[in-house]
Every structure is written in structure tokens, then in C-alpha cells.
Amino acid sequence: MAFSAFDQDDGAPLAEINMVPLIDVMLVLLIVFIVTAPLLTHAVKVDLPRAQSAVNETPPQHVQVGIDAQGVIYWMGEAVTLEEMRARMSAVALHDPRTELHLRADQAVAYRAVAQVMSEAAQQGLVRIGFVTDPSGK
Question: Which residues span the domain enclosing 95?
């Protein structure tokens, strides 16, 4: 008594994919999504009060540091030594670490002096450094 249909060879592999398990999984997922979708869109309606206000942000302060062609350092227009600059940078960084350092260096100054000021600023906690240039390019 053979149960094979259409005279198949017993040793031949099936060339068809059994779709029944795939359809069963798809239908289960469909039911899960149908049940959970209304739960995801459920929200409490609240009438929030309306107010107009502007964000009150104070811009960070900035400090002008200049270096002339001879390598003299100026703090806000006043000539200072390296130790004085280090102490002032430390005090400013303790007061507000967001303070910006605007560096004005003469084009004839050695890069060593500019790098030294930048290094001291980073060591004291002033990491926002901007280079001030002449926009005219002359």
C-alpha cells in the first residue's frame, strides 16, 4: 500500500517549498500586529497651556590675546608676561569655562609663540580658541 501521489520516485528530493509553515507564521504575526496597533496609538489628550517666552542665554565672554612681531603678549590690550597670562587664563577658566579666547597674532611672529599661548590656554581650561584675521587680505 503506497501513499505516494503521482508516481514519485522514493529517492528523489522534493523540488517544492512547503508554504504552509510560512503562511502560519505570517498569519500569527498579522494577528499580533492587529491586536497591538491600537495600543500603540492610544494617548491621553491633554490641553497644555500656551506661553510665549524667549530662551535667555547669555553669550560666553571673550578675551582678546595679542602677540606682536617681537613676541610680546597682550591681554586685553595690556602687555603681560607669560606667568601673568597663565594666572589670568586660570582665573577666567574657573569663572566661566565657556570663555572664548580671541587670538590676534602678527603675521611676522614665530609660530612657536602662538603655539605656546594655545598650549597654555588648553592647560588652563580654555579650549575655545579663535584666530582673528584681517578680512581685507591686504
Answer: 62-131
pTM over cut 0.90: no
Tens digits of residue pLDDT in 80-120: 999 999 999 999 999 888 889 999 999 889 889 999 999 99
Q: Identify the CATH number of the domain in which residue 99 sits.
A: 3.30.420.270
> CA 80 to CA 63: how far, in whole Å?
14
Overall number of domains in the chain: 1
Could you identify the residue written with the cell 510560512? 22
Question: What local confidence, expressed as pLDDT, does residue 64 receive?
Answer: 92
Per-residue pLDDT at 51: 76
Residue 43 lies in a domain: no
Domain membership flag for residue 105: yes
Within-domain flag for 89: yes
